[in-house]
Amino acid sequence: MIDKGAAGLGQYPTAGLAISIQGDSKETLAATIVESSLAEIWLELARPTSQDLFQEGEKVRLKYWDEEAVVYYWEAEVVNIASSGKRHLAISVHDKGITVQRRKSPRVSMHIPFWFTVIDAADSQLIGERVVNSETENISVGGLLFETSLQFKAGDKLEINLYFPDSHPMNAVGWVVRSNPFQRDGKPLNEVALEFLQMEEGEQIQLLEFLVQYQSSEATVKNARTKGSSADQPGHL
After folding, report:
1. Closest residue by Cα to residue 145 from 203, 190, 197
2. Contact between residue 92 and residue 1 where contact means Cβ atoms under 8 Å apart
3. Which CATH number covers residue 212?
């Protein structure tokens, strides 16, 4: 059994974390940790499943991306499955196989156009809905923030295509970790935080390089403006 302090991660799967889990079926599912102890961790799958996706004794992998775009992986084993609905399961996290991928990635505020298709949702009427005129409010390699009139619930799953300047579209699958309603000019909208569940390694690198380059160019522009403003002050020749 893993010792929280010995992990050296600053992160142990704790209650409230929105994570993804993958087992032998290779299907990636969204889940939330509802209870956590050194003995076992109870997960609640974001959606009920119509089939037995997990078995007791099955090896699974948990994945969590924090706000700093640090990716945490935990190797674990299913030790219990609740009989009602099979939506809750308990896992045991081992001290071997834990890896951390630190990606020094900025979260930048910028508007990148993208379209999305709803592939799973608590409201079944949303499934298949396609929106082609969305844009990000901010983005990192871990996920993005956007606004929409659609009312999503945590765990809803979207397929998205991002369109970067001078680059081919980037495809990813993500799930909603929160959706906060607000109004603008009397129109009801929702601010949606999406975490990436599935993304090819090459596309992760493409996104990371784009974000780092964008942040660098923004810093250059800001420094130039600062120098120009200083030169305009009295006493500067």
Report:
1. 190
2. yes
3. 2.40.10.220
Residue 2 vs residues 10, 39, 93, 231: alpha-carbon distances, Å? 13, 9, 6, 58
Per-residue confidence band for 227, with pLDDT thresholds at 50, 70 and 90: low
Task: Give mean pLDDT, residues 151-165.
Answer: 90
Classify strands 70-81 and 143-148 as parallel, antiparallel or unpaired: unpaired
69-78 as b/e, with b when 16 or more CB fall inside 10 Å? bbbbebbbeb
Q: Are 203 and 172 in contact (CB under 8 A)?
A: yes
Domain at 76, CATH number: 2.30.110.10
- For residue 201, CA distances in Å to 20, 99, 165, 171, 217 come to 17, 16, 20, 11, 24
Same domain, 74 and 154: no
Query: Do residues 33 and 14 lie in contact, with contact meaning Cβ atoms separated by under 8 Å?
Result: yes
Name the residue type at position 114: F
Q: In sequence order, what are the residues at sequence separation of 6 or more whose Cβ sits closer than 8 angstroms to the Cβ of residue 84?
A: none
- For 79, the domain range is 5-102
Q: Which helix (H) or strand (E) holds 7?
A: none
Structure tokens at 91: 């896992």
Distance of CA 195 to the CA centre of its chain: 2
Q: What is the dihedral of CA 122, 157, 48, 24, to 10 degrees?
A: 170
- For the chain, what percent of residues have pLDDT higher than 70? 77
